[in-house]
Design a protein that fits this description.
Elements (H helix, E strand, L loop, with lengths): L1 E7 L7 H4 L3 H21 L2 E7 L28 H12 L5 E7 L5 H16 L5 E6 L17 H16 L3 H4 L3 H6 L5 H11 L4 E9 L6 E8 L5
Parallel strand pairs: 1-4, 2-3, 2-4
Antiparallel strand pairs: 1-6, 5-6
Length: about 230
């Protein structure tokens, strides 16, 4: 049973040890990510984390060795950045949480990503235990002149507005319709993960708690928690 779904960015800057001189700018989005993780941890002790696949590494590759693991009693692990962030979120929950990674190829076709989400929904529905889903994805990397994607694009702002509106309203049609070429041009690497979210959630209305939407470093960060309408206690 799907207990709750949380959406967080795949951003090392949310980890305090990695923020460095950007700590003040990262404070609001970090608080929002921690709040979302704690909410998800209260809803479910088992999480499935969905993020983009990539090279396995530790946080030391981003400047500081911050140990993370998928289980409360596990050892420090190497994994793609999205799962490093997922496991760091797991560690912010108030209760012990087990995390099961689901990695999606960055070049996955929209239909394939959507199918992954549909299959995941069926898997979760067949389980009587409450399961939380952690969706780890950034928006555009081209939202300011100094943005890491190579500068600012007006089309990137428009695309980010589409993503933010879909997350805010809990509607997945726009996420399912994200165009791979547009997303590549505007630096939305998380596109397949948003499409997995669309397949997972389906047409059900969402009770949304939007916790953050902004681009403090020229990258679109959106943080929210979703539940099925009527499911909040």
């Amino acid at each position: 049973m799907l207990a709750e779904l949380a959406i967080v960015p795949s951003a090392p800057v949310v980890v305090p040890e990695l923020s460095g001189p950007y700590a003040a700018e990262a404070a609001e989005v970090r608080r929002s990510v921690v709040d979302a993780a704690q909410s998800l941890g209260s809803a479910a002790r088992r999480w499935i984390a969905v993020g983009i696949d990539g090279p396995a590494r530790r946080f030391s590759a981003y400047g500081v060795d911050v140990p993370v693991t998928t289980a409360p009693d596990g050892e420090d692990e190497s994994m793609p950045l999205s799962m490093l962030i997922g496991c760091w979120c797991r560690g912010q929950a108030d209760s012990p949480v087990e995390l099961d990674p689901l990695l999606v190829d960055a070049g996955a076709a929209p239909t394939d990503a959507h199918r992954i989400g549909v299959d995941l929904a069926e898997r979760i529905a067949a389980d009587s235990e409450p399961i939380g889903v952690l969706v780890i994805a950034d928006g555009s990397t081209m939202l300011s002149p100094s943005a890491p994607g190579g500068g600012e694009r007006e089309s990137a702002h428009r695309l980010q507005s589409v993503i933010d509106a879909a997350v805010t309203e809990g509607t997945v049609g726009a996420l399912a319709a994200l165009d791979p070429q547009d997303c590549e041009a505007d630096g939305v690497e998380g596109r397949p993960v948003f499409e997995v979210l669309a397949g997972l959630w389906g047409d059900a209305p969402a009770d949304v708690d939007l916790r953050y939407a902004g681009a403090p470093f020229g990258v679109g960060y959106t943080v929210a928690t979703w539940r099925r309408v009527g499911a909040r206690s």
